[in-house]
Amino acid sequence: MKLTQLTAKPKLIKIELLDDDIQQEYGETIEFWIYDRYPMKKFMKLASLKEEDYSEMIDLVEELVLDDKGTRILSEENLLPTKVMSKVVQRVVETLGK
Question: What residues make up the domain containing 53?
Answer without folding.
Answer: 11-97
